[in-house]
Design goal:
6 strands, single chain, MgtE N-terminal fold, CBS-domain, three-stranded mixed sheet, Tetracycline Repressor, domain 2
């Protein structure tokens, strides 16, 4: 192939990848792995991201294993961490996996490790990532050809996905073998009787297994994308482990408090955090103490303090809940902190303005003081912006530092929202004391 012809071919591939990624992926998934590697290696990574995002993880892993390390790390850097995890876990060579992870930038590696390391008893930890999925419009003859060329493996079911890899249906291998070769998978597929997400815990998985008696349990991520299958033998092992856990619970062997745990056990678990909370409460009280002269001069400020602190607390709690859920479901990762904070800043600002307007009307009707109304209006906006941002920052910071955000986020958030609420209201009142 001449140099000019090669450039034309690359340009055509880039155009196809960017404008028609679904069709391009469908073609690539039917091609020889070496041929796919040759095509993708000649195209800048940034121009083939749509392909890597949609390509079957198992096939993508086979292509990656034949790519230079710097090329692989560039792909991992630009694609969604959950998609990257699916590909990395489909690489059979553990040394190759470790080499790739060690070569990544620190922030990218941390997010990838979080995507890979699901909770020990979750569907994400129990599932088999090495699955092949197909497109509904593929013909039976095409699928059989692909299966024959792939490593020999006992398939009971095949799964179909749409262009974004969302799970659509399943096909029994017997139905595929007995069907007309010109039929499409859409003609054969049926809806899976049960699907779980990656965070479904072992107890629920075992319960589903007992109810449905399935052999394979498809697993999807938080966006409904097909990422793996929990096999029947894994389900059996999980069932045995669940039985052993139940026996331990019956004789009181547990690391976590239950509703009827011994009182001294509960005290040991709760008391340290109560003491920490007491310390933070004194910190908030100290802030109020700084403005004692202002409060003594205008007692109406003391009446309104709980209003500002309460609203900032609720605002922070909302941001905290959304962020913690995003971290738990792997919708967001610590390296996305700037996007999360920017979003929460805007939410806090607009909610602050709207709530402050309502508050200002109420305060004016109550006090008939324009100065007090202006002060609470400004402080409400400021405190709610700080609280909203804090609600996002705290769980992300605790996650980065290796702490459990679910255990201690609320205590730190309460401290910040109380201090922010008191300081903003009393501080602004002190600055504008002349208009009170």
């Amino acid at each position: 192939m001449s140099k000019n012809t090669s450039h034309i071919a690359i340009a055509l591939h880039e155009e196809l990848f960017n404008k028609y990624p679904a069709e391009a992926v469908r073609q690539l998934e039917q091609m020889d792995i070496d041929e796919v590697r040759e095509i993708l290696s000649r195209i800048p990574v940034i121009n083939s991201i749509k392909i890597w995002e949609r390509y079957s993880p198992q096939l993508a892993a086979q292509v990656m294993e034949k790519m230079p390390l710097d090329f692989i790390t560039e792909v991992i850097k630009h694609i969604d961490p959950n998609r990257a995890a699916s590909i990395i876990l489909s690489i059979t060579n553990q040394d190759k996996r470790d080499e790739i992870i060690n070569a990544l930038e620190t922030s990218v590696a941390k997010d990838l490790k979080r995507a890979i390391n699901y909770e020990p008893d979750s569907a994400g930890a129990l599932m088999d990532w090495r699955v092949i999925f197909f497109r509904p419009d593929m013909k039976v003859s095409e699928v059989i050809k692909i299966l024959r060329e792939r490593p020999k493996k006992a398939y009971r079911k095949l799964y179909t996905v749409d262009n974004e890899n969302h799970l659509i249906g399943m096909i029994e291998i017997e139905d595929l073998a007995l069907s007309d070769h010109e039929a499409t998978l859409a003609d054969l597929e049926s809806t899976p009787p049960v699907v779980v997400d990656v965070n479904t815990d072992r107890e629920d998985i075992v319960s589903l297994f007992e109810k449905t008696r399935v052999y394979d349990l498809p697993v999807v991520d938080f966006e409904g994308r097909f990422v793996g299958v929990v096999r029947y033998h894994t389900l059996l092992e999980a069932a045995l482990e669940e039985s052993r856990a139940d026996l331990q619970t019956m004789v009181g062997v547990s690391k976590d408090e239950r509703a009827l745990s011994a009182a001294n056990f509960a005290v040991r678990k709760r008391l340290p955090w109560l003491q920490i909370n007491l310390l933070t409460a004194f910190m908030a009280a100290a802030v109020v103490g700084l403005f004692e002269p202002t409060i003594a001069q205008y007692t109406a400020l003391a009446v309104l303090l709980p209003v500002v602190a309460g609203q900032s607390g609720n605002t922070g709690a909302q941001a905290l809940a959304v962020t913690m859920r995003g971290l738990a479901l792997k919708e967001i990762y610590p390296r996305m902190w700037s996007r999360v904070i920017f979003k929460e800043f805007n939410v806090g600002l607009w909610n602050g303005i709207l709530v402050a307007l309502t508050t200002a009307i109420g305060v004016y009707l109550w006090s008939q003081s324009g100065g007090l109304t202006l002060i609470i209006f400004m402080s409400m906006i400021l405190s709610m912006v700080i609280a909203s941002v804090a609600g996002a920052v705290i769980p992300i910071f605790l996650t980065v530092t290796g702490q459990d955000p679910a255990q201690s986020s609320s205590i730190f958030l309460t401290t910040i929202t109380d201090i922010a609420g008191f300081f903003s209201f009393l501080g602004i009142a002190t600055l504008f004391i002349s208009i009170l």
